[in-house]
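ok, trying the design again with the full structure, not the truncated one.
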């Protein structure tokens, strides 16, 4: 057989060996997807007509109030993947606050700097693919003795280029590079998780602030009404029409909303300071946008979500990339047990006179092809493979746990959001009824039909119900935030977090 025909199979075999990678290749573990999200319980189904009737009843009695609101409800989405944070809350002030936080929050900046570190580590791992080149120069004087002759002294000048290259015959370096790239991708998803958590925190804190504003307004309005009542009682007491006991009762009724006003003012100041730090600013006042009821009217509640949306969650993606990195490192550990092939060499010029350093007949060189094979390490390399396999198994279970946790969070948020909507409807109906009851009690008192204690009872009940309404309204808005966070959210800043540069 001619030489070139014998060399061709050997070349193909070598190319095939170089193309192969030792160790297992990564494949996403199969995870069970739910056939559907949990349906409402039997009791919830039985109460559905009642809640719908409450909503229709309130719509008919509070139509003017709703028409006066500038809110424009979002249509029910066909896919919640199309809804982003900007569309979830149609409040331009909240949108600006979130944009500021994503841009200036220190935790986000720390996460971005960490990504640069992992990107550099990825570049370090890729650098091992290529020959390592260096150059060195020396100048000096040397004295040597040959046999029994007199010492011989001479000058030495040399300039030498060095090359060292490990041939990735088994794919060990490629596996190390795959692991570094997966680490980088996981870190990018961790940054997305930081941004997502930040957006959620800013949104919930802002909604809490709007709820406290509403509570403060209710308390101030109730306080003003009760102060007027107290002034009237004091005048009637001075005229001898009522007893001191009645006056003391009116004073006690004034103290409750007064204490609430002070408490709400304290909470507002604390929350503004907390929100300022999330924005990356010193503590200070926070601008306001739409009222909490207007924000709620713009929220569209999905009936369900496709399980594929969980793939958008940064924690699920990060766990998968961590698993991919651990799988690749099995190949790195296995490759350490196999022969290592290296090429090293030098080429340069040497002379005993500086003026002749780069002239002809001064070149020097050496080329070596090396192979090293570990023969006995006391089981160290074998155990390193076993440790890498165990870490990959841990990463797989962590990925599966993260995925199951994501399913739980979406299911819980969906269920809570639907229940919140029903509770808000019922609470609004109660507030409307108590407002009407207060008007009737006032009219009856002014007509001399009933005592003023009926008015006070109606005021107390309405005050309590209005504060309870703001609580459930906040819970509904916060659960909407939790749902979209559980689905991986969505924010324009995500588009800048791409795959690593090659």
């Amino acid at each position: 057989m001619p030489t070139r025909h014998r060399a061709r199979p050997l070349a193909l075999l070598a190319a095939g060996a170089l193309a192969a990678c030792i160790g297992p290749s990564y494949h996403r573990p199969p995870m069970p997807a739910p056939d559907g999200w949990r349906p409402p319980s039997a009791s919830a189904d039985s109460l559905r007509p009642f809640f719908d009737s409450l909503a229709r009843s309130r719509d008919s009695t509070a139509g003017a109030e709703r028409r006066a609101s500038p809110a424009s409800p979002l249509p029910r989405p066909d896919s919640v993947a199309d809804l982003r944070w900007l569309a979830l809350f149609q409040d331009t002030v909240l949108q600006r606050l979130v944009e500021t936080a994503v841009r200036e929050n220190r935790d986000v900046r720390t996460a971005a700097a960490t990504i640069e570190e992992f990107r550099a580590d990825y570049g370090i791992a890729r650098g091992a693919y290529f020959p390592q080149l260096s150059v060195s120069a020396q100048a000096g004087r040397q004295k040597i003795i040959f046999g029994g002759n007199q010492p011989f002294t001479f000058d030495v000048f040399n300039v030498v280029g060095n090359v060292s290259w490990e041939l990735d015959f088994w794919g060990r370096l490629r596996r190390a590079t795959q692991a570094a790239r997966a680490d980088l991708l996981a870190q990018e998803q961790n940054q997305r998780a930081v941004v997502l958590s930040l957006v959620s925190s800013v949104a919930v804190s802002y909604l809490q602030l709007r709820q406290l504003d509403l509570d403060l307004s209710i308390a101030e309005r109730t306080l003003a009404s009760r102060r007027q009542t107290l002034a009237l009682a004091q005048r009637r007491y001075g005229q001898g029409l009522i007893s001191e006991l009645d006056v003391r009762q009116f004073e006690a009724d004034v103290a409750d909303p007064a204490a609430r006003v002070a408490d709400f003012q304290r909470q507002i100041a604390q929350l503004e300071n907390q929100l300022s730090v999330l924005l990356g600013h010193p503590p200070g006042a926070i601008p306001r946008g739409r009222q909490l009821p207007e924000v709620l009217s713009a929220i569209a509640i999905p009936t369900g979500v496709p399980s594929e949306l969980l793939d958008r969650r940064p924690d699920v993606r990060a766990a998968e990339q961590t698993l991919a990195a651990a799988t690749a490192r099995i190949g790195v550990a296995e490759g350490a047990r196999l022969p290592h092939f290296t090429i090293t060499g030098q080429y340069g010029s040497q002379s005993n006179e500086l003026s002749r350093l780069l002239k002809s007949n001064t070149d020097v060189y050496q080329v070596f092809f090396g192979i090293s094979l570990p023969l006995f390490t006391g089981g160290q390399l074998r155990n390193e493979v076993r440790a890498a396999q165990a870490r990959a198994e841990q990463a797989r279970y962590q990925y599966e746990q993260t995925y199951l946790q994501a399913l739980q969070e979406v299911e819980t948020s969906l269920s809570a959001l639907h229940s919140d909507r029903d509770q808000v409807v019922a609470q609004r109906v109660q507030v409307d009824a108590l407002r009407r009851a207060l008007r009737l009690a006032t009219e009856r008192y002014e007509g001399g039909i009933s005592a003023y204690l009926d008015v006070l009872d109606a005021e107390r009940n309405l005050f309590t119900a209005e504060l309870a309404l703001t609580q459930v309204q906040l819970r509904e808005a916060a659960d909407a935030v939790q749902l979209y966070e559980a689905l991986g959210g969505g924010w324009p800043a995500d588009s800048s977090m791409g795959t690593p540069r090659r």
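Keeping the full-length input from now on. The first strand starts at residue 132 and ends at 144.
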